[in-house]
Amino acid sequence: EDKVVQSPLSLVVHEGDTVTLNCSYEVTNFRSLLWYKQEKKAPTFLFMLTSSGIEKKSGRLSSILDKKELFSILNITATQTGDSAVYLCAVEAGTYKYIFGTGTRLKVLA
Amino acid sequence: DGGITQSPKYLFRKEGQNVTLSCEQNLNHDAMYWYRQDPGQGLRLIYYSQIVNDFQKGDIAEGYSVSREKKESFPLTVTSAQKNPTAFYLCATSGTNSYEQYFGPGTRLTVT
Fold first, then answer.
1. Between B42, B50, B104, which is nearest A88 by CB?
2. How far is CA A1 from CA A32, A45, B22, B25, in A?
3. A85, B30, B32, B81: which has the highest count of C-beta atoms within 10 A?
4. Which residues in chain B have Cβ-Cβ distances shorter than 8 Å to A92?
5. Greater confidence, B94 or B98?
6. In percent, how much of chain A has pLDDT > 90?
7. How buried is B105 (Cβ within 10 angstroms: 0-12 exposed, 13-18 middle, 19+ buried)?
8. Sign of the CA dihedral B42, B43, B46, B50?
9. What is the full DSSP assignment across A41-97?
10. Span A61-81, mean pLDDT?
11. Residues 6+ apart with CB under 8 A from B98
């Protein structure tokens, strides 16, 4: 059975800290891995990863995929209170088939 | 203003009543999806549609029905057969050449 597991489930840090969120997967037909940020309602797209070892970066956020060990990490440096959200990892495991993890709830304290 | 709209934002219903959630998009995307999100759980796929007049069951389709009469619209009906309908429902779309899904703002359904 295809599955995506995220860790930790929740995390509380102080502004300025660096955090690393983990996403591991087991799927039979991997096509891509996606990261989303969900604040209150609609998840918003952060990154899509298809190749191992190539870091994607956007401001203070970066992500990398390891297709051999079947995981991805999302790094956030110099965290701000606005980074507080649920971060979702999803794997596209076939045409129109997306498997989501349970998410990591991040709270950044001022 | 392009995007996905879902209505209503909040919906309250009595047990035993069917209810329809609206999802409209103007992104010209072929594929549309309905997900359910419960506290502490990831998004779970209810139904998806690749093209007009065609749709497929997802992992938790029991107690739900959909239609896709127009490219822009993919309404979801939560029937009285759904045993635990209270949840946050998200509609999403994706284009032909993109792996990324775009999400609507969601509808929070409460059934008492």
1. B42
2. 17, 25, 31, 32
3. B32
4. 99
5. B94
6. 85
7. middle
8. negative
9. SS-EEEEEE-STT--EEETTEEEEEETTTTEEEEEE-S--GGG-EEEEEEEE-STT-
10. 97
11. none
CB contact under 8 A, A90 and B105: no
- State pLDDT tens for residues A20-45: 999 999 999 999 999 999 998 889 99
CB pair distance less than 8 Å for A102 and B40:
yes
Q: Which residues contact A13 (CB under 8 A, 6 or more apart)?
A: A19, A79, A106, A107, A108, A109
For residue A104, the chain B residues in CB contact (below 8 A) are none
Q: Are A97 and A27 in contact (CB under 8 A)?
A: no
Instruction: Report the residue of chain A nearest B104, measured CA to CA.
Output: A42
Residue in chain B lying closest to A33 (CA): B99
Q: Which of A60-69, B60-69, B96-105 has the lowest mean pLDDT?
A: B96-105
Pick from B33, B90, B100: CB nearest A48: B100
**Mutation for B interface: A46, A96, A104, most B CBs within 10 A:** A96
Q: Closest partner residue to B48 among A32, A90, A96, by Cβ?
A: A96
B99: nearest CB among A9, A31, A103: A31
Output the CA angle A85-A53-A12, nearest 5 degrees.
25
